[in-house]
Amino acid sequence: MNRKFACLLATLTFALTLNLSAQGAPAAASAATPASSPSGAKVGIIDVQQVIVATNEGQRDFEALQKKFDPKRNELQGLSKEVDNLKSQLNTQGEKLNEEARAKLVKDIEAKQKVLQRQAEDAQNEFQQEQNTIAQRILQKLGPVIDKYAKDNGFGLLIDSSNPWPQGPVLWANQGMDISKTIVDQYNTVSGVPAQPKPAGGAAPTKPAGVTPGTGAKPTTTPSTGTKPPAKPSN
Q1: Contact 22, 14 (CB under 8 A)
Q2: Among 119-128, 189-198, 206-215, which is the least confidently predicted range?
Q3: For a surface tag, which of 51, 81, 196, 229 has the fewest beta carbons within 10 Å of its beta carbon?
Q4: Per-state percent for the chain, helix, strand, coil, to nearest 5
């Protein structure tokens, strides 16, 4: 399997096996003490993407999405194994085969590689689209929760820390300013979705890919890995 295609399959496998059902909320102080601006209004930070995943609803729906794609992941792994077996056969028997048999084997490998790459890309795109749909649905309901909490508690400014600096606006912030956990608790109360069973190992929730927080934000689909058609198999 050529290197670029192996990277694509590894990315897809990782995406389809994300453990998003962990119980922990974002790493933040349980009782945040936001700083005050010169005007006296509170300033806080919130990791919107992490909040989406850490909510009970997010944990439930992302875990269900993972399970939905398990059969496709297994199918791709099986097809990948077929390609590897054919390549191994070419490497070990290639010199013993006549020209016609060897050409047929090479053609079979190339055909299966193309099918595998196309199906992997399609599955990855579909997974990310459905992941974004879940995230945006929660985001739409999360906005009013954040708005109410900020107004009730005298905040003058909340900054999203989803993307680390320099991509995001937050260079450094005291963790006492992070109200992410509080917002998760507020959302869980409003949504009424019960806590999900804690998985073995207690893995931390993971941010969904391609989410663009903000009012009226639309799902964004950005395939993690672009690849070129696989090269011809070598001897």
Answers
A1: no
A2: 206-215
A3: 81
A4: 55, 5, 40
